[in-house]
Write a structure and sequence with these properties.
binds 2-phosphoglycolic acid; alpha/beta; single chain; 8-stranded parallel β-barrel
């Protein structure tokens, strides 16, 4: 099965980086992974235009209201109108730095799906919660997905917050265990087989063993996705 190799540029790179990045992917992507690149919102249109037929384009966030007096926000329909077809929802940096709650993220998920966007919904525990990851993840899932009945455009990214940007990667045994728990939680609560990506310090040197796990349906990559060479090395590592 194809796996999803998703990039998250976060607040990095500029317009000038789009062309060489897309060109490199076009030339060097050999196997049939599903590539999704989530770029800063101001770059969505240009990235989507250049990446047509090469990879999918995603936003990193969008607001739950459809339109109105929400200075600085962008709506799901605005994202869609750029040519992008994915968005992240609930990245841990949005949760931690911008105070996004499960309730808000549920509304964002509903708004994005309504516009026909595909959603990569992020969940994960912080270091202090590691021993009780089950209750933390279950709450994020049950509250975040409340009322959702059509899961066909959703994938989940499990990103232990202590592994994001820290160089600390969960062990393959931990990844297997937690992914199995996440899948089981979706099955029990919503009756669906959820695809689950792993994220947190994924890089070319560790991606092969992570992507080889049956419980891992793809990866979400931050730092190592900024350079096309590293991003493609990860995509080619399986
Ligand atoms: P990282 O980020 O690969 O730099 O750890 C992952 C993410 O935040 O999605």
């Amino acid at each position: 099965m194809d796996k999803i190799i998703a990039a998250n540029w976060k607040m990095n790179n500029t317009f000038a980086d789009i062309k060489p990045f897309v060109k490199y992917i076009k030339k060097n992507q050999k196997n049939k992974n599903n590539l999704v690149v989530c770029v800063p919102s101001v770059m969505l249109s240009e990235f989507a235009k250049q990446a047509k037929g090469v990879c999918e384009t995603g936003a990193q966030n969008c607001y739950f209201e459809a339109k109105g007096a929400y200075t600085g926000e962008i709506s799901a329909s605005m994202v869609k109108s750029t040519g992008a077809n994915y968005t992240l929802v609930g990245h841990s940096e949005r949760r931690q730095l911008f105070g996004e709650t499960n309730e808000m993220l549920n509304k964002k998920l509903v708004a994005a799906l309504k516009e026909g966007l595909k959603v990569i919904f992020c969940i994960g525990e912080v270091l202090e919660e590691k021993s009780k990851y089950k209750s933390v993840l279950k709450k994020q899932i049950v509250e975040g997905f409340a009322g959702i009945t059509d899961f066909s455009n959703i994938v989940v990214a499990y990103e232990p917050v202590w592994a994001i940007g820290t160089g600390k990667v969960a062990t393959t045994a931990d990844i297997k265990k937690v992914h199995a728990f996440v899948k089981q939680t979706f099955k029990e609560n919503f009756g669906v087989d959820m695809l689950v990506l792993y994220g947190g310090s994924v890089k070319p040197s560790n991606s092969k063993e992570i992507l080889a796990l049956d419980e891992v349906d793809g990866v979400l990559i931050g730092g190592a996705s900024l350079k096309a060479e590293d991003y493609i090395a990860i995509a080619q590592s399986r």
